[in-house]
Amino acid sequence: MTERTKEKIRLLKQEFRANMNGMASASMRDAGIAYRVNFGIELPRLKTIAKEFEPDHELAQELWKEDVRESKIVATLLQPVETFYPEIADIWAESINTAEMAGMASVNLFQHLPYALEKAFQWMASDQLYVQVCGYHTIIHLMRRGDLSDRLAEELVDHALCTMSWPSNPFLLRDIAWKALRQFAGLSESRAREVVIAMQDAGFDRTAELRPYLEYLEGEE
């Protein structure tokens, strides 16, 4: 690590301490959001702090290594897309262990990658919980900017329905899959109809726990 990067990290830590929110930190800890260090700083303030620094690959990589909530979030804001190669993206996704960080990394960085679509589908097929969550978050953000090809649309629907219908999957995973499915269905009337038909074919109308999802979309048609 260069001396310049060390100095930037020192300045960031000063900002973190100056803006610490003990009540928010304690609340997150009580809710099970675990980091070695959590200053409890609100996201708008973290974005303001990050804007004081130029995008910097070395700085972002060093910040991400720390088990400090604010360091990791700022890392997602300062990492240049151009030097964030696919293998690094995998390393970051596989190291995530909170729902909050999966969401932050996806919205701040992953969705902007030139290979974001490829990674989203790769991660959705992972056997690691938070990697899957990153995949679903990323595809949701991508769909807010445009539709999918028919092949990818079919793959997404299959992934989401499988995730939702597997009862042993954590609620977090089933919920983000449902959000992705709703985002897809909201692209157009024809996409919504595709999802309804796929849910019927998957037996959602015959399963008490799954029927409300189908009824929701049928009511939206």
Q: Uncertain segments of ≥5 residues (pLDDT<50)? A: none
Radius of gyration: 19 Å
Give the helix proportion (percent range). 55-70%
Q: Note the beta-strand portion.
A: under 5%
Number of helices: 13
Class computed from helices, strands and strand pairing: mainly alpha
Oligomeric description of these chains: single chain
Kindly describe this structure.
This protein has helices spanning 3-18, 22-30, 43-50, 57-65, 69-78, 86-95, 99-108, 116-124, 129-143, 150-165, 171-185, 189-201, 211-220. It has a domain at 1-83. It is elongated and about 60 Å long. Helix content is 68%, strand content 0%. Helix 5 (69-78) packs parallel to helix 7 (99-108), helix 7 packs parallel to helix 9 and helix 11 (171-185) packs across helix 12 (189-201). The model has no long low-confidence stretch (mean pLDDT 93). It is an all-alpha fold and 221 residues long.
Short description, anyone?
With about 220 residues, the chain is an all-alpha fold.
Strand-helix topology:
Blueprint: H1 3-18, H2 22-30, H3 43-50, H4 57-65, H5 69-78, H6 86-95, H7 99-108, H8 116-124, H9 129-143, H10 150-165, H11 171-185, H12 189-201, H13 211-220
Helix pairs in contact: 1-4, 3-5, 4-5, 5-7, 7-9, 8-9, 9-11, 10-11, 11-12, 12-13
